[in-house]
Structure formats: structure tokens, C-alpha cells
Amino acid sequence: MSGPEPGAVERYLELALRIGRHVDGFIDAYYGPAEVAARVEAETVHAPAALVADAARLISDLDAGEGEPELGATRRRWIRAHVVGLHTSARKLAGEPIDYADEVELCYGVRPRRWDEAEFEEAHRRLDEVLPGTGPLGERYVAWREAQAIPPETLPAVIDSLCDDLRERTDRLFGLPDGEHIDWELVTDQPWSGFNYYLGDLRSRVAINLDLPVLSTSIAHLVAHEAYPGHHTEHTRKEVGLVRERGHLEETIFPVGTPQCLLAEGLADLGLEVVMGRRPEATVAEHLRPLGVRYDAEVAAQVAVAAEALDHVRGNVGFLLHADGADESDAVEYGMRWGLVNRDRAKKMVQFMTDPTWRAYISCYLEGLPLCRAFVDGDPARFQRLLDDQLLPTDLAA
Predict the structure, then answer these.
(1) What share of the chain is helix, strand, coil (3-state, %, to 5)?
(2) What is the Cα–Cα distance from 388 to 391, expressed in whole angstroms?
(3) Which site among 70, 170, 232, 322 is 20 to 30 Å from 178 CA-CA?
(4) Under a CB-based contact definition with an 8 Å cutoff, are residues 54 and 369 in contact?
């Protein structure tokens, strides 16, 4: 005799965990009911077609709105948007062709766009004006960037100094739960630059990848993004406010390919300017110079402003790979030409976007940051809503 049909939240958790058995790294974090994870792990792996059907059935049941009145309209809508993302991932697993822009929109709730290369050319012109030295721009920019490398033996002290400051600023502005904690580690052989492994119980393990030199121009952003007031802060505040206090168990899982990811990356990318100001370079220099790390705050600020549009070169590389069918070598060359990065960094960019888990993820950064920045509009109270509330990209754009 079978037991009662699981509710929508449990079905959502099961569906995500079942897809995760097909795609390594698909479940970014899970600290929900152990019995649900154990049950899924003990099952025979579900075929992708069955997962597509399960997701479609859950969407239909959520739309019908029958039963589970405790979910409420907001939770039901949030869960539905995430199930649509899971449904899309299952369709991809089943071999269904889905247009790249459609895939991004269905998974993450925004539609990506290609950037006009004229905007990159304008960024090149502005960079040429502010970069020191003479000679071809690409060579000068690569040389300048790589000269900002932090010696690996100094990196732990740099991280500790920045983390302590960012934690204090975050706690003062938003509050941090008692007992929250981060363990940092240095790793290699990964497609990303940094990663927050949220473990539940208010704890994170944050990994910084040393495959490429870590730069003084990006380290403060990296620490803020992964820790305070970024991923760790969001996870801990939602664990306390949504999971423990309100019983929203759907927040105990963080699957790739859902709108949750776009807002998480957008708020994490915004975090440094929220707690240190739009131009944090002078403050960052106060941490780096005593440790002997090379960092010209004035030039770094000018370069950051001039080069901002070049972040979107990565978006065009995504279209080249997944919409145009370009070879990886051509994508690397495109990244080098327009992004003004060396071959190793361009190859790492392409590695990330050809990883099965992360192929469409780049839009979470490129579309998430401007969406969150416009929503916050300089108001820390609105940033706190991103940390605490169940929101969708459409809520921010409204």
C-alpha cells in the first residue's frame, strides 16, 4: 500500500535531486530533509523523459492551485518558475533541441542579448586613454592586468583582511545570524574563479581557484561575491528567515538552471558597491598595500569604469558557442580580441561555458547585476530584500 502523494515542495526537491544525478554539480547546495535526499539516492536513476513528464505534471498541478493552501500565491508562483527551469534542464537532458536564448529565458527568467561590438570598440578607446604605457592596447592591457597578480603565499592574508572588513560592514548594515561561519580553501582544476559551497547550519566552504593568477583588481569583488554580503550572507539569512522561521523548505535546495541563480549572482556581484561604495578601490588599497600587494587604486578605478562593457564579451561568446555553433578555438580568439585577455583567461572563459553544468549560466552575471542594481538603486533596504525575500526577476523589473 503506497503512502500519500508528496506535496509540491517535496516533489520539487525530488525533481531537482533526480536531475542532479544526471549532471555533476547541478545541485549547488542542499540542506533539506535528509530522508528526501536518501530516498532519491537509493532510487534507480530516472530517465530524462520521465523527468520531463514529472516536471510538466508538477507545473500543471501548481497551475491548478488545488490543495496546499499554506503555500500561498507568492510561494506557488516562485516554485512554479523554478520547476519551469528544471523542466527545461530535463528537456535538454532528453536531447530536445532548445534555442539558446529560449533556454536562458526559461531557466533564468531573463532573455539574453548579443552586444554590439561597437560598444566593445568604445570601451577599447576609453581604455587606451587611461592605461599607462605605450604600444598596442591589447598587449598593454594584458600586461597591466597580469602585473596585478597576488603572490599565492600572500593570498590567505589578503582574503582574511578583506573578509573581516566586509563581514563587519555587512553585519552593521544588514545583520548576520549568530554562529554563521566560512572556511576558505585554495583549489585548482576548476572552471570557475570562486565557489561558495553552502553546507547548511549557517556554514559555507568557499573555494578560490588558483588555475590562473588571482588579481588585486578583482580580489575584493571575489570575496564580497562569495561571502559578505554575497552568497554566504544570502544563504544564512534565508536559512534563518525563510526555512527555520517560516518552513519554506524549497529554499533548502539551490539547483542550477533556475531564476534563484540569476538573482543570487546579481546581488553577489552588486554586494561590494553596496557595502563599500560604487568606487571601492581606495578602501581596497588600504588592505593590500600593508601586505605588499601591488595595487594602484586610481588607475584601477579608471580601468574598471572604462572596461565595464567588456564583461559582455562573455555573453557574445555564449551565443557563438551555443547559438552559432562556433568552434571553441574561434570562441577563444573572440574572447582574446574583444575582451583583451590573454589566451589562458580566454580558454578558461570557454571552459566555463562549455561545461555541461554552466553552459547557459553566464547570463546570471550579465543580466543579474544590472537588474539587481536598478532594483536596489542605492537603497540598502532594497538590497536587504534581495537577501531575505522570495523574489523572481519579473519582480525586480516591475
Answers:
(1) 65, 10, 30
(2) 9
(3) 70
(4) no
| Alpha helices, H only, the chain | 8-20, 34-42, 48-64, 72-93, 100-108, 117-130, 137-146, 155-174, 219-226, 231-238, 259-276, 281-288, 297-306, 313-322, 328-339, 343-354, 362-366, 368-376, 380-388, 393-397
Cell of 377: 538603486
CA of residue 308 relative to chain centroid, distance: 18
Contact 145, 339 (CB under 8 A): no
| Residue 376, all three cell numbers | 536596489
Quick one: which of 264, 272, 279, 288 has its CA closest to 170? 272
| 313-354 confidence digits (pLDDT tens) | 999 999 999 999 999 999 999 999 999 999 999 999 999 999
Sign of CA dihedral 354, 356, 362, 367: positive
Residues 6+ positions from 180 with CB-CB distance below 8 Å: 202, 203, 232, 236
In the three-class reduction of DSSP (H, G, I as helix; E, B as strand; rest coil), residue 255 is classed as strand
In whole angstroms, give the CA distance from residue 211 to residue 152: 11
**3 state DSSP class of 215:** strand
Strands ordered across the beta sheet of 203-209:
181-187, 203-209, 194-200
User: Which residue in the block uniquely carries the three cell numbers 532510487?
Assistant: 43
Phi, psi of 348 (to 5 degrees): -65, -40
Euclidean distance between CA atoms 285 and 216, whole angstroms: 9
Name which of 191, 243, 207 is nearest 31 in CA terms. Answer: 243
| Strand 203-209 to 253-255 pairing | unpaired
The helix (run of H) or strand (run of E) holding residue 344 is helix 343-354
Between β-strands 181-187 and 203-209, what pairing exists: parallel, antiparallel or unpaired? parallel
Question: Which grid cell sits at 23?
Answer: 549532471
Report the distance separating Cα 379 and Cα 371, nearest Å.
Answer: 14
State pLDDT tens for residues 177-226. 999 999 999 999 999 999 999 999 999 999 999 999 999 999 999 999 99
Domain ranges of the chain: 8-98, 117-397
Which helix (H) or strand (E) covers residue 51, if one does? helix 48-64
Report residue 85's pLDDT band, with 50, 70 and 90 as the boundaries: very high
Residues 28 and 98: beta-carbon distance below 8 Å: no
